[in-house]
Design goal:
This is Glutamine amidotransferase. Keywords: Glutamine amidotransferase. The protein is globular, with a radius of gyration of 17 Å. By secondary structure, the protein is α/β, with parallel strands linked by helices. β3, α2 and β4 form a beta-alpha-beta unit.
Length: 254
């Protein structure tokens, strides 16, 4: 099987490693079949799409809607690399799933509006599939309404032209959309379970998602829910898009 590629942007090792472990666990892949590139640490370099089964883009501290002057040189580099990659991904309708930060990156790339209008604090929310979402193969194993973990300072305000709206929540109208047939974006975190969420609450305690002294109460609120359906998307993504072994070996050349 050709490997899958996970692109990360989290500078903190605890959060970055937890994210990678979660993608490994919920996709059923091992380290040889899920290659990680931490974009905050090094340039992506050319990506040969023929070498990969599909691409995941995780969340992180960057906001696509930040004003250019507020973006660090690293964020500007990362966003330039992702824009170039998405040019190729969308043109080819290549399998791609971006979560949280990923929805802002894909939404901006495709001409949608991304801002702080529908931000959500860290916690669990009910996500409801649209008619198109219920009919979509990637979401087929999910209930019409399910709980998911969120936590974001920006969100899609206006859907990109031509995008297919797949899911919403009471406080955030666009929780998922699709471009073409194979390019997906979610606002919620399909890779998060309660352990992963608690790790991120500790790591991002002072990042402005909540008051630092509320960390334990946020964890208790999360533990009171039943968040178990979103990770099914990750295994389904792998099952749908895994293809025969690439003759080229790797797909990222630093």
């Amino acid at each position: 099987m050709k490997p899958f590629l996970l692109l990360g942007t989290r500078d903190e090792d605890a959060a970055a490693d937890n994210e990678y472990d979660a993608f490994l666990g919920f996709t059923g892949l091992d380290e040889s079949s899920l290659h990680r590139v931490r974009l905050e640490r090094r340039p992506l370099g050319p990506v040969d799409l023929d070498a990969w089964s599909g691409i995941f883009l995780g969340g992180g501290p960057f906001n696509a809607s930040d004003p250019p002057a507020a973006k660090s040189p690293v964020q500007q580099r990362v966003e330039g690399e992702l824009a170039a990659l998405l040019d190729a991904v969308v043109a080819r309708d290549f399998p791609f799933l971006g979560a949280c930060y990923g929805i802002g990156v894909i939404g901006s790339h495709q001409g949608g509006s991304v801002d702080a209008t529908y931000s959500e604090p860290i916690g669990r929310v009910p996500v409801t599939l649209t008619g198109a979402g219920r009919a979509d193969g990637l979401l087929a194993d999910l209930s019409d309404t399910f709980e998911a973990f969120v936590g974001h300072k920006e969100a899609i305000r206006d859907l990109p032209p031509g995008a297919v709206h797949l899911a919403s929540s009471p406080g955030c109208p666009v929780q998922a959309f699709r471009v073409g047939r194979n390019v997906y974006a979610t606002q919620f975190h399909p890779e998060l379970d309660i352990h992963g969420l608690c790790t991120r609450i500790d790591v991002y305690k002072h990042a402005g998602y909540f008051e630092p002294d509320q960390a334990e109460s946020v964890k208790e609120m999360a533990r009171a829910g039943r968040v178990f359906e979103p990770p099914r998307m990750l295994r389904t993504f792998v099952q749908r898009y895994a293809v025969a072994t690439s003759p080229y070996g790797g797909g990222v050349r630093a």
